[in-house]
Amino acid sequence: MAKYLSGELSSSRFCNMSASTKDQLVADLSFKAKVLMWGGLVFGTIAIGILGYSVARNWTKYKDWRSQRRTQQQNNSTRIGSESLNDEILGEGAEEIPDGELCVVCLMRRRRSAFVHCGHLVCCQRCALSAEREIAPKCPLCRQTIQSSVRIYDS
């Protein structure tokens, strides 16, 4: 221990961990640091580019979806308004509806809508539209997933 403190062992291989000089180690470390920095910069730039592309693509998809949904809601509200007007004109609310033709959800109006995929005719137009707007729309009769509903006209 006394030899180490006096500096006699400082030049021996015991204290050195490599055969390189201090200047070579500093140069090697600075080169590796620059390689890591530039590599990180390149990969970071690529990652930001990919994220920007995906955000832009999803934003346009969202805007298209939102405009389609607005037009669909406008069409549905127009369709419901015309249907309720037609029902009032025909005086459907005043006549007696047989139990076999009542909507299974509200039990007030005549069955008018068939669900696309299962084909069941069990709901009035209002209840069918409210069933379609649910998070996971299902047929009230068979609980199968539905895509949309179709208005059925009596002959």
From TrEMBL:
CDD domains: RING-HC_SPL2-like. The keyword Zinc applies. It comes from the Eukaryota. Gene3D superfamilies: Zinc/RING finger domain, C3HC4 (zinc finger) (3.30.40.10). The keyword Zinc-finger applies. Pfam families: zf-C3HC4_3. Residues 103-143 form the RING-type domain. GO terms for molecular function: ubiquitin protein ligase activity; zinc ion binding. Its EC number is 2.3.2.27. The chain crosses the membrane at residues 35-56. Keywords: Acyltransferase, Membrane, Metal-binding, Transferase, Transmembrane, Transmembrane helix, Zinc, Zinc-finger. InterPro entries: SPL2-like (IPR044247), Znf_RING (IPR001841), Znf_RING/FYVE/PHD (IPR013083). PANTHER family: E3 UBIQUITIN-PROTEIN LIGASE SPL2. This is RING-type E3 ubiquitin transferase. It comes from Salvia divinorum (Maria pastora). The lineage of its organism: Eukaryota, Viridiplantae, Streptophyta, Embryophyta, Tracheophyta.
